[in-house]
Design brief:
The structure is a single chain. The protein is of the alpha/beta class. The protein contains five helices and ten strands. Strands 1, 2, 3, 4, 5, 6, 7, 8, 9 and 10 form a ten-stranded mixed sheet that branches.
Length: 227
Amino acid sequence: MKTLRREIHPQIKVLDAAQGIVEYVASNETIDSYQEIVRADGWKFDRFEKNAPFVDSHNYESIDCLLGKVIDFKVQGKNLIETVKWAIDVPSNITAQKGFQMTQGGYLKAVSVGFFPTRFVTKWDNDPTFNEQMDELGLKNSDNVRCIYLEQQQIELSACVIGANPDAVARAYKAGILDDAWLEKISAVKAKRESASSADGPAAVELARQRARARFLLEYQLTIKKI
């Protein structure tokens, strides 16, 4: 089953700067950019609690992608609250140290939950549960909700370091948190993510990657001139 990812831009709390411990609102019941809703009481952690990884932008290619671990997770009201320990105590984990510095500086706020949906309803189903859920959420047909996830297994939590918008990256660069080498890394990985869905062969993927990288760098350059 395909892993789904849903990103929000939460208010975060740095609970212990010395230990790298941060609390996030990882998910809530607002309508996301996919016109979908994830019900808070549907979160399950059977697989997640065995390891609870905190990773870089849903990337599992190597141990270098591991930024830390989720040390606490719970549902409070309509929110999924998760507490993360960034691996800042590991000197070789430069990405975790950079990510935590950006978090402390207010440049990195987004987290994204990776999960497997196990029960859901859509507006196309011949199922009264969808309308019942819409009523319970206080929503109307005009809100154009496509899908409501009723139960889902969390797989991981990601910091969206690579997904940072040009404004956040530019401000972190000017603050001295990021350097030219990190800007290159961010643009390259962001381009890789954006071009991965191409089905026209390796050459088309590479061209799409180069274009995405150039677009990000241009956005960054235009942004840094404004601040």
